[in-house]
Design goal:
The structure is a homodimer of 356-residue chains. Helices cover 32% and strands 24% of the residues of chain A. Chain A is α/β, with parallel strands linked by helices.
């Protein structure tokens, strides 16, 4: 097997346009999850790029984000060229995002292999991560197949899509993409050993990605190709981009493509989807409490305090998640963290854009 | 019975040197309970003085406080002369406080009847309050006795001293002052109909107060008399004041004096001694919640939110008291409000004067 690292430039495309609100009040539209330091050292965005250090050339690391977040994204990533932050005129889901990355990158790094990552995931075991990436890159470059990473489930999650795999070895074949399952189905998936979480992490050559998009999702690509043919004027990108269907890459391409490979990952992974999920990355003290910031706790158990600039004093409470921010305070039972979404909806309905 | 209002000027002495910490984080050493607007309209201090409006001449209303609080006290009370805010060089309990008031006031309003009030109590029924005050003033001026107000107990409180009374009518005789009782005793007191809470509210003529202090507590008065005799130089007050025994007026005088009268009060009263006590003055909503400030509450019951400048969002919690202040946040089970004291002690031990 030839060394693909010499044959094809290895490119990382970090999708960083997320505007999640599940970490409200810490996350806001201008301060989404990838900008937060809630897990690990530094922001999730910076960790995502730092993880590539020594394995990807800085000029081959691209980040796609929205106009609103571009400046802060560049500020957080001094290690990559400013021009490598590709700006979506608006968020239109992942298929347009990756198609834009394609037309931008194939002009700059022709012949590359593209590793699609997400800016707001946590990944443990960075060495295993790089090894798994290398496995996928080699497969994509050598076998010329689209590759998806399959995360081995650790519990019967009903909120993710699954990949059903077949075959043996470090690279399997995708038998089917499965939608978010009901619990009984998720339990079967967990037991089967053949089902993996689809975390939206992909590897493919630029050439194959173009060919497959052209075959299965030409509407996602054509307006961008026309824009490039007309001179790729940044001023007119918004018009072209607005014509793209707002659709996920899984739906637009992956579920339609044939011969997709899956690399079962060995690294630990989390999409850090909620405050309780974030909590799992913090070692609780003897009373089960997690404290970020300054707190005085009396008779307090199994609670989490994400402090801000102020002292938090708690007494006689348990099972709380407290998030203290400059202009808003969240006090939530730890089993009710999903209600953060409702709070955000209420704020939207009340026109409290200042708090969103 | 002659009209005492014409015979003797009626003087109010509001003790306002309290430095309580039970309302931390709202109360601080520089912002004690009397400066807070936690019950009723405006601060407790201002309510105390406003209650006298129309019944006491402004120049006959005096407020005794400490040097630290004097400026803010004057600012809050533009309706009384600045010189009527008498400044204790330091807090030395109520006997020195009232002795200082005596020597200051007898020079300015000789022959007056002094009504001793507290700046940080809540009083309902202001008309009944004034009527009860008039009853006590007339008795003190006409019968020339020390008078104490007796608050009719509404539950078996073990944290207050009690007055055991005898006799009939609107003015009774004090049989004995009783110390804070154990619960079984407090229950007997409540049932007896002859026991009243001692709220530290008194009425006496300046002349009788001087005579009784001279008889029972000369050490509280002599250094101040010497200071007056030497010219009452404000610069040397601290030296004289520092010689006074640090003692409560109940111990120094009331428990020793003979022939003390008690006026059972008809007005509702509270010393607003804790966050739960303050809560009783707020009408809860249908879910049992009290909200001051801005809050979004989801599945939240029997909780109180004393907000600051920030939005509070709560979900799935109950029985909490939340107090949001500029530099500190309290989250407390409502049965654990006494732990505020422990929190303050901890802050003291840690040298966090900025939060005290």
């Amino acid at each position: 097997m030839p060394d693909t690292k010499q044959q094809a430039p290895k490119i990382a495309v970090v999708m960083a346009g997320g505007r999640g609100t599940r970490f409200w009040p810490r996350s806001r539209s201008s301060r989404p999850k990838q900008f937060l330091s809630i897990v690990g050292e530094g922001t999730l965005l910076h960790q995502t790029v730092a993880r590539l250090d020594g394995h990807f050339r800085p000029e081959h690391i691209f980040v796609v984000t929205t106009a609103e977040l571009a400046e802060e994204t560049r500020r957080m990533l001094p290690e990559i060229p400013a021009a490598n932050v590709i700006v979506e005129p608006e968020g239109r889901n992942t298929a347009p995002c990756l198609a834009l990355a394609l037309v931008e990158i194939e002009r700059r790094v022709p012949g590359g292999v593209m590793v699609v990552l997400s800016a707001d995931h946590w990944i443990g075991d960075p060495d295993l991560f790089i090894e798994d990436v290398e496995t996928a890159v080699k497969h994509a470059a050598w076998e010329r197949e689209l590759v998806v990473f399959g995360i081995r489930p650790t519990y019967p999650e009903t909120g993710y899509g699954y990949i059903e795999a077949e075959g043996q070895g470090p690279v399997l074949r995708v038998k089917a993409f499965r939608e978010k399952p009901p619990m009984d189905q998720a339990i079967q998936y967990l037991a089967s050993g053949r089902h993996f979480w689809n975390a939206g992490l992909f590897v493919w050559t630029l050439q194959d990605f173009r060919a497959e998009l052209t075959r299965h999702a030409p509407a996602v690509l054509a307006p961008l190709d026309a824009w490039v043919a007309a001179g790729a004027d940044p001023e007119s990108l918004a018009e072209a981009y607005g014509q793209l269907p707002e659709v996920a890459i899984d739906v637009a391409l992956m579920e339609k493509a044939e011969g997709v490979a899956v690399v079962p990952t060995r690294f630990r992974w989390s999409d850090v989807g909620s405050w309780p999920a974030a909590l799992e990355f913090h070692e609780p003290d003897a009373d089960g409490n997690v404290v970020k910031g300054e707190a005085i706790l009396l008779e307090t158990r199994d609670s989490a305090f994400f402090g801000g600039k102020r002292l938090i004093a708690a007494s006689g409470v348990s099972d709380l998640i407290v998030v203290d921010d400059e202009d808003a305070l969240l006090i939530c039972h730890r089993d009710k963290a999903q209600s953060v979404k409702k709070i955000v909806e209420r704020l939207k309905a009340e026109g409290r854009e200042d708090l969103l």
